[in-house]
Structure prediction request, 382 residues.
Amino acid sequence: MAYLSWNDPDVEGGVQTVMMDTNPLSVVAYSQQINKMITWTELQPHLHYSEERPDAIPWVSSHYEEDWGFCIPKTVYDCLPRDATYRVVIDAEFTDEPMSVGVGKANQGDGWTPSSYNPQLLLAAHICHPMQANDDISGVAVLCEVARRLTENPLPDDALGVRFLFCPETIGSTAYLSQNEWLIPHIKAGVFVEMAGTDGGLRLQHSWQHTDPIDKIAFYALAGQHVDNGTPFHPEYSFTSDYFGTVRANDEKIINGPGVDIPCISLIRWPYPEYHTSDDNPSIIHEDKLQEMADVVERIVRIYCTDYVPKRTFRGYLNTRKYGVWVDWTKDWDLNVATQKIIHLLDGELSVFEISEAVGLDYWTTRAYVEQLREKGLVTVD
Prediction:
């Protein structure tokens, strides 16, 4: 229960009451319990509203400070009497029960042990924002769609595993990793997804490492995407920063934090005017934008998890006709021209994705050719 009341002779019963428990945004998240009489001067610092969206309820949290407060539309704030004495009530309870952290994994067989656990790619979204459609149940929806697609069309048996993490923002990923430190060396990279459904352009924030394979593959997967007003996608937003140069950080700062150092990128549609208000509701969500984000994430997953470093098993010029790996130039000129370049680059230093970039071919075209060589015993994988 939460409410704000004051004496008002103009209403029946002489007491005016504003209930604050009909909308979960109305009470500052993590508010302390309170039940007392206070003046307007004491109350005012605990009232929060949005100047930009005066009819909306803002979302405010106080995770790291013992505080309390109410969130109200600016139109309500303006009508509150300044000379009244108020009773403020927030019936809150804090417990030591563990927070809920949901974890899923795909392409991971049974019978594992921590020492033999397969390398994985981590996909994360947060679940802690009440009544916020874009921030961030949209990110959860996107990753659920990616999980569905991977279930219907699984990755190859020798691909990296994929782990899905849905948890409270930053606090949840901190708790999860701290309770599963043995897992950290097995997570090779991460992708954090949020704010996926509004009518804005996709934006990539780099990992702390900035040039890790996950950064390069994400940029490749975003090729052809556009942001607002038809402006070509621009990838150069650094770790935990946005295009305003301000801090824009979430679970990627935990996953890629000091001492953890899992390269983690962020995919986001930002900014949008309804952010952190009751206007962030399903009416601003576009299904085609969710599907577009899912398409990008799926492309990243399928490339990153199937990439590997090939090494040739032979020396010298390869007679491609003899081994049945000659490419008919009349059917695929580009691959025919690139064949010897690919063979030269099979030195055990570059991954298939890096080789595809070096020769200017599509990843899947390059990989299919390297797989032919691998099937013939001409390529090995460490």
Residues 310-381 form one domain.
